[in-house]
Recover the amino acids of this structure.
DNA sequence: CTAATATTTAGCAAAATTGCTAAATGAAAG
DNA sequence: CTTTCATTTAGCAATTTTGCTAAATATTAG
């Protein structure tokens, strides 16, 4: 791996993290988790999140993992709770930077 | 189906079209098709699009179908060619309207 | 009508995703 | 140290997605 010039390596890495973000956003449950987090001030425990969803707790955990690997949420341990927090700027910036190419330049 | 008050039915329909858009955007080849279209002025034949991708022509056709059902592209027949065009506004508006909830309100 | 061109649909196998239940981890309370 | 609480990991079955090749469709050219 990494037998590429820095510029290309970076571009590739950026494409990959973009892919992780868009993949994470493709499942309605995951978008909803982000919205609930946003709505509740940006931070909740795993239990509070899981309680709001109809799917099983482990399924929610997995969605949270996908969101975390994509960089859209992060958590901090507090005793035996995990406080997940929304990575608001990363979310908005990543999507925006892709979407900007498609914004009407005539506006 | 459709045994719901109009407001809820509409909300549900909107969620569903949002889902189709985000699902369509989750595959790198599909995002790339949109970018190529954008880059080339918003309109290309199926053949011109397929020629730019490493996957087989039928595979590209399927990606185009997914994009079309999501409302992100549309085509017009011109002889035996299909001219696909980018639905720029729908793309930007759909993604934006979801993303707006996550834009920092303090800015 | 026949051949060629542009593109799609059909149908299949491989891979990825989802959701579940059961078991595991790790911190805290008794 | 044993139990309890909060949460995750493991492992499996069902479904969906992807990509391929082969066959079909439709339009134009000869």
């Amino acid at each position: 791996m990494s037998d590429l010039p820095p510029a290309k390596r970076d571009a590739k890495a950026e494409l990959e993290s973009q892919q992780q973000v868009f993949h994470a956003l493709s499942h309605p449950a995951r978008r909803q988790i982000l919205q609930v987090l946003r709505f509740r001030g940006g931070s909740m425990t795993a239990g509070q999140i899981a309680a709001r969803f109809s799917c099983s707790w482990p399924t929610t955990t997995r969605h949270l993992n996908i969101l975390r690997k994509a960089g859209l949420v992060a958590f901090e341990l507090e005793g035996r709770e995990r406080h997940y927090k929304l990575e608001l700027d990363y979310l908005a910036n990543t999507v925006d930077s892709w979407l900007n190419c498609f914004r009407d330049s005539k506006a």
